[in-house]
């Protein structure tokens, strides 16, 4: 490989470890060389063989990534629709479930132009995203869907907005009422707090 750069010319002999140079090797290159038998101690108990198996953290990270809610437009209202009674979205077919949800809302095709409905199979939920408050209320009111002549119960609720998080406040004085709690949480010192 020939590289032209401004500066001082050096010979390949000067590009060694003794002179402070390191050879950059990608993971793909080292795996190929280990598989082809170039390394001296390549056997069943070497690092290359152990790298083929996922460790616990990799499995946990893969499951966590798969179970995250899909990216939706931040300005949209997100509604989580979870089947009840042990119904499984992947077995019913996520496309069929999505169509049944649309039918249950009673929205027309012109109203569905900006709607997004997608499954999260690992959590066994459907996520509906809509920019319209009226449509979000229709999704939340769904209690059941009709799928192939069978009626399936659905639990629907609106997810918290993207810029918020939920929390539990412990050790609250029993004497404090709702107004006192709200005044302590939602105040000028905590401008991002919302009334729930």
CATH homology superfamily of the domain at 77-158: RRM (RNA recognition motif) domain
Main sheet strand line-up: 2-3-1-5-4
Overall helicity: 25-40%
Low-confidence stretches: 39-43
**Large-scale geometry:** extended
- Please, what is the average pLDDT? 79
Q: Per CATH, which architecture of the domain at 77-158?
A: 2-Layer Sandwich
Reading the helices and strands in chain order gives HHHEHHEEHEEH
Distance between the termini: 64 Å
Structural classification: alpha+beta
Multimeric status of the protein: single chain
Describe the largest sheet.
5 strands, antiparallel
Number of strands: 5
Write down the CATH topology of the domain at 77-158.
Alpha-Beta Plaits
Radius of gyration: 28 Å
Instruction: Give me the number of helical elements.
Output: 7
Give the percentage of residues in beta strands: 15-25%
Q: CATH first level of the domain at 77-158: which class?
A: Alpha Beta
């Amino acid at each position: 490989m020939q590289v032209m750069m401004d500066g001082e010319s050096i010979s390949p002999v000067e590009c060694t470890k003794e002179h402070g140079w390191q050879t950059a090797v990608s993971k793909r290159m080292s795996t190929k060389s280990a598989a082809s038998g170039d390394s001296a101690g390549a056997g069943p108990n070497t690092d290359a063989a152990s790298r083929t198996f996922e460790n616990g953290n990799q499995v946990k990270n893969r499951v966590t990534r798969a179970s995250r809610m899909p990216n939706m437009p931040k300005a949209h209202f997100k509604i989580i629709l979870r089947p009840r009674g042990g119904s499984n979205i992947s077995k019913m077919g996520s496309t069929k479930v999505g169509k049944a949800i649309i039918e249950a809302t009673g929205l027309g095709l012109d109203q569905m132009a900006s709607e997004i409905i997608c499954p999260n199979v690992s959590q066994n939920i459907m996520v509906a995203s809509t920019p319209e408050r009226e449509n979000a209320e229709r999704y939340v009111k769904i209690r059941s869907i009709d799928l192939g002549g069978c009626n399936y119960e659905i639990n629907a609720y609106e997810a918290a907005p993207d810029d918020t998080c939920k929390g539990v406040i412990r050790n609250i004085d029993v004497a404090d009422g709702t107004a006192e709690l709200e005044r302590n949480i939602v105040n000028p010192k905590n401008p991002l707090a919302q009334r729930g």
